[in-house]
Amino acid sequence: MNKAQLVEAIADKLGGRQQAAEAVDAVLDAMVRAVVSGERVSVTGFGSFEKVERPARYARNPQTGERVRVKKTSVPRFRAGQGFKDLVSGSKKLPRGGEVAVKKAPKGSLQVAAKKAAAKKAAAKKAAPAAKKAAAKKAPAKAAAAKKAPAKAAAKKVTAKKAAAKKAPAKKAPARKTTAKKTTARKR
Description:
By secondary structure, this protein is an alpha+beta fold. Helix content is 57%, strand content 14%. It has 5 helices and 5 strands, in the order H-H-E-E-E-E-E-H-H-H.
């Protein structure tokens, strides 16, 4: 099913194709904007959408087998809700055309969720300046530690070599073997 088919499927319930198209666009736009901003969009009985960070990594080019560096990125993730999983697996039967397959959200939960989201945004705005100040204070300390790191690494290498030299017994040069001919030549 594509977007046009989805609009057609709900057009009868909303009173027209134009209203259905506007509703689908509004829902999708709101979901995308929320996920992009880092919020989790959870639809009771259907599933949840969230933004996930993927760290930098190495991958292989399947054509050449060459190792390729992949930068860190953010991707959207969808996790199906239990009700949706049950319907797809067949453990629950899909209701007839007039009934709603996805459970409705409990009364008042939409208002509570909106209040929580607003409170989260306000807390994030207040915390942002404090986090910047803390990062600014830590930056000089990190720079000093970074300057000391190569010296510490070099010192560790030297001590590791000394320790290895103490542990390993000194190797003696193999004794020279003399043949019988040489020894007789020396005696004459």
